[in-house]
Amino acid sequence: MIPLDEARAFVLSSCRALPARSVALDDALGCVCAFPVVATEPVPPFVNSSMDGYAVRAVDLEDASPASPVPLAVVGTVLAGSPAQPVVGPGEAVRIMTGAPLPAGADAVCMLEACVTGSGGSVVVIDGAVGPGTFLRHVGQDVAVGDTVVDAGVELTPAHLGSLANQGAAEVVVHPRPRIGVLSTGDELVETGLPLSPGGIRDANRHSLLSVVRQQGWDPVDLGIVGDDDRAVATALDEAGARCDAVLTSGGVSVGDADVVKSVLRERCGGTMRWMQVAIRPAKPFAFGVLEASGTPVFGLPGNPVSALVSFELFVRPAVRLMAGYPGLERLTVPAQLVGPIERRPDGKTHFVRSVLSLDDEGAWWVRPLLGQESHQLAVMAAANALIELPDGDGVARGDVVRVVVIAPDRLEVVPDPDRAGAPA
After folding, report:
1. How far is CA 52 from the centre of its chain?
2. What is the rounded CA–CA span in Å between residue 396 and residue 356?
3. SS3 category, 366
């Protein structure tokens, strides 16, 4: 067996960021910006009102109070999107809408709720002082010319895309979203919707892996099922390498007589291929290589469904994030207290224990190991939002602090009683 860190370092050393290219702004969500984008236009581009109300001269209202309200003559209206044509002179005001440009002569806005209109709207009465700059958005207050709108290495969020649109950008240069092919191998596999033959099993892995690829924001490519035939697997990988940025296979990488994927990878990947027995549980068998014909990385994941998903987390996700240009490759890890004990015997491996992680109402992390830690128990993996990283040894006791990898951050919850968090232990 080899250490996990060694296996991961080998994989990462063989992967590179995809070449940058321009994509339409509306297609760039979740992609990583390849170059800094510098503002060429100020945002806002002109002084405008942040409230519906009246544009006024602050000097006219210096002495305004409830006991001595000040009447102002209303000399016009300015709407959002229209040029500010009226001019505010001494003793005057202009009705103004949110986002409308400030008319000449005015230096503040009095919000509508603080105003009383009279004489059919031709007069507004204000009973309090309004300081210069009140309820105004100034030129460049959000972004000034020369500011960095989005830096290189930043994952583009909806707010980033809006900021780029504010600069008039129709496209942005990014590391493109990787296309990830997913191939299942094995004579025993039966496609979803077909009756099970004697000895057959459903192909759960392909659907799980296609879904987790999509969940990461990448483009999944369904490569179907191939039986345990060297030529068929080789042809499938050749075709996948020509159309995908990376390929995931499941099955065929252990020590069985029909485990053909590793032999095909050795043939197609030459000196870059490595078959590994990694010192982890689950997901001990793993193969990796780069197809010589296309330069496409291939990840040979184990066939047990939990092993395939854990292998994805440990090897595929960081490598493809590197290909997609992300500066951060790792999942969030936190120290958490164990709700229940975990018994194990020394075996030279780090165990990744499916678990439920939660916060108590005082902000402390707690983690509850789940029952059913065998590598075929996919239902338990579905209940987990975290993996306890359990070093080799004799186990850990309730209340011990362990390192936890968060694999489903959207399913973290705050619970007042950690003993009741998640599924039964």
Report:
1. 37
2. 16
3. strand
Reported confidence tier of residue 194, pLDDT bands at 50, 70, 90: confident
Over residues 118-149, the pLDDT tens digits come to 888 899 999 999 999 999 999 999 999 999 99
Cα(140)–Cα(239) distance, integer angstroms: 52
Q: How far is CA 145 from CA 38, 161, 181, in A?
A: 8, 18, 43
Residue type, 35: F
Q: Is residue 181 within 8 Å of residue 247, measured between CB atoms?
A: yes
Are the beta carbons of 357 and 365 closer than 8 angstroms? yes
Domains annotated on the chain, with CATH = 4-18+178-323 (3.40.980.10), 21-44+141-175 (3.90.105.10), 48-137 (2.170.190.11), 333-420 (2.40.340.10)
Q: What is the pTM of this model?
A: 0.89
User: For residue 185, how many C-alpha atoms fall within 13 Å in the half-sphere facing its CB?
Assistant: 30
Peptide bond into 282 cis (omega under 30): yes
Tell me the per-residue pLDDT of 232-260, one tens digit each, with 9 for 90 and over. 999 999 999 999 999 999 998 877 656 78
Alpha carbon distance 195, 214 (integer Å): 27
Q: Per the structure block, which two tokens stand in for 256?
A: 């069985």
